[in-house]
## 1
Amino acid sequence: MSSSTLPTASAKRFPDDFVWGVATSAFQIEGAHDADGKGPSIWDSFCRQPGVIADGSSGDVACEHYARWEQDLDMIRDLGVEAYRFSVSWPRVRPTGDGEWNEAGLAFYERLVDGLLARGLKPYLTLNHWDLPQALQDIGGWGNRATVERFVEYAVGIAKRLGHKVVSIATHNEPWVVAQLGHETGVFAPGLKDRRLAAQVSHHLLLSHGLAVTAMRELQLKASLGIVLNMAPMYPATDSDADRAKARLEDGKLRRWYMDPLFNGHYPQDVIEHLGDDAPYVEAGDMDRIRVPIDFVGINYYSRGMASADNSFDPKTGGLELTDMGWEVYPQGLTDLLVSVHRDYPAAKRLYVTENGGAFPDPVGADGRVHDEDRTRYLDTHIAAVGDAIAQGVPMGGYMVWSLMDNFEWASGYEKRFGIVHVDYATQRRTPKDSALAYRDFVLARRAARQV
Ligand code: IFM
């Protein structure tokens, strides 16, 4: 099949050890929500509440990856990439988050990892991509400090089983989303609306990260250890002092709130003041428990943030190029972000773009193919933006497209398609879109160039 490469990205230089990959998460693709002893997660429960998922769907079936994993691994291999970022479903391996482990669930991930290795693919594992066991939510979830201990047990259990085979283990994916969207605005599971609780949840997530890393280090794993954060560079909508102050605060809430504890051992003072009585309770010693050496920070980037003091900025009215999520396409923001993270947190030794991509409406053409020029252009310009950051000295380790295939996009259900592979949910047929073919040819050309 013919395809075009990515012309802007192709003009950039990437280090020889730079890793090219694709990413997914368990709940969004696996389905098999109650198969082989899996327990319910908070997302299984949340989806059952009327009105919370745009199309009324759930993750019950999703992409049937639990059953189709071998075919999917062949597909990843055929895309020419080197790495696959996936997550483990906590309730699949330990159904209630406590007590008995589920050997069938563990065996599934072992087969998956062995299958990746057999195909020459590097496994990048994430422990928590949001699907907390419901049984733990029933006793307070991430608001309960005891969940921190359960998470450490989970991390150690997975690390013992897979940590000598996988390339990397990330503790959490986007803890900001869990705290803010899950506990403050309530648009994601577990659907709570309590700012005080959200702040406490963010602290427990960070604490569990630090304690899990410390516990996993003792196992002397092959895997590198780190965390994945969603970030957006914040720009003031105008030059006014008020808008600048707002941009600074928004950056504090999204980025510094996580990066300062991880690397500097404290929460940002301006955000603590902003939270006032809602600031989290922090036990003596917690900040040292959080600030432990890690090997990488994964950054998930989709768009920039524009801050205006009166919240009047609306990307939908600005004539800007938007994705199907209503997010602005702004590749320069990725360069700005990576450069600033490296400048502000030099102790973050290695950065990865662990997610980047766009949702676009993708009709299947009369020729049976998906000509997703907008996504192909998005990938081209954003990969080029990573190349620009590398040229400015940012220590980048790799880039992973979100997502391998169309999947369950949380509160948007199946209406938004992020995949470079199209999924026909009626038949579960997978069809690589033009963006997948362009990415494949780009990556294969990069890999071939290394060998000369
Ligand atoms: O689908 C999500 C993913 O689970 C986490 N990062 C953002 C993606 C797009 O919304």
## 2
Amino acid sequence: MSEVLTVNYDEKPCYDIIFTDNFGILGDKISELGFEGRKVCIVTDSNVKPLYANEVLNVIEPHCSFTCVYELPAGENNKNLDEISKVYEFLIENHFDRNDLLLALGGGVVGDMTGFIASTYLRGIAFIQIPTTLLAQADSSIGGKTGVDFKGYKNMVGAFYMPRLVYMNLSTLKTLDGRQYASGFAEIMKHGLIKDQKFYIWLLDHIYEINDREMDTLIPMLKKSCSVKKAVVENDPKEKGERALLNFGHTLGHAIEKARNFELFHGECVALGCIAASFISWKRNLISMDDYYEIRDMFVPFNLPISVDNIDIDEVINNTKSDKKVDSKAVKFILLNKIGKAFIDTTVTEDEMRKALEEILWVEDNE
Ligand code: GLY
């Protein structure tokens, strides 16, 4: 069981995304890409290594002259230049050259860091994304954004650098913690909301299969979700315009994430941000009240929050100003014209943000 999508860059085929339920053909793909007999370093983290590193090693060893595993400490707080330097040292000590290959085996942090190392080590070495979380499969492994956090700012230092392949073994989702799975799903729902109403309806029609992680549903779901992202990044690979639509739910989402000291998961904050942006869209008469409540309530069966407590609204609004989605003049918001059609808006006022945050703020007598 496997499916493929090819992502273009500069109107030429650039890399394939493989959707499958095992690691079986990864070795053959490495050979097909021209890395037969080369050195391969699997970069993973302390959570994922015990689960999948040996399985991946077994599949690739027959195809490579040398294999090794580098274990990053797990967690966003380790996504920094100090940890990156240690990987450079490891690659130098093991004599990796520009014809060798890195594999990013893990979630978004591993993918972003490995991609950044690949973009800079010897001015560029090839890498393959092997995302093992739904968040990384739905979003961060596609489109070539790589980087690290810097002095409290998320993804402040990085590069656009394309992988040679994205290999998704969706059976890795079977071991994913329920909250992590729901968090990844928020990005999938986002793709339906911004670009594809039919896909959004398909997701609502498959709640049970999605929550049960049925492979027959996961493969078409990820393929459709990635085809939405593929179309956007092909049109605008370096986020000069349209790619910003992928930030739907992220302006207030990131601001809430920061205000809650990163205790909430990224996708949980994205869900809250999508609800807040939909609320603003409703109040501007862009979508109907029924659409707004439908969008809000559809996060519930997918185990995502529709309200948040312990936030200071002024702090959240303030956080939007230090986010990268701010250009020199205004906060960049993504709003909806209808379900499946988003647009960029730079005129959202603090008052609109405040009302949207009041709407999602959990207070006891709401219950
Ligand atoms: N995560 C949004 C993007 O890839 O542009």
